[in-house]
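Q: What would this chain look like folded?
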Amino acid sequence: MLGFMLVILGAALAAALAGAGSALGTGVAGQAANGVVSEDPGKFGSLLVLQALPGTQGIYGLVALFMIINKLPAVDQLGSISVGTGLAVLGAALPVAITGLISGLYQGKVCSAACSLVAKRPGEVGKGMVFAVIVETYAVLGLLGTILLLQKISLG
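A: My prediction, written as structure tokens:
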């Protein structure tokens, strides 16, 4: 049963840490966006996109959670998951969990700076988004790492 609990811990960490990164990142960007919108409500649309960008890490964490849960064997076989296999799944969940947490926070900071850019030069929102997407790359790589690792693990 310990193996099963380690699998669930891996799934939970993938979703929770990546989700926390998104919550922190969208919060930071949202604070900056609110300041700009208080001065110029017409910039809401551009700023909403910048605030939403750090939210994707949470989605990546949920994708990993679903992939892990879908690998689980039938309920009557859950006790057959070895501790080693549980640890392998836990380890496979870490790339998306850690990159989601860190990149979500830092993408939020980049998006916050992009909000300042939009406040001064509204036509430059695309450049701010490009800077933010570069940070996103590492969350995508973390998800890819988790997917590749999970493909090599059999739970059933």
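The helical segments are 2-39, 44-52, 56-71, 83-120, 125-151.
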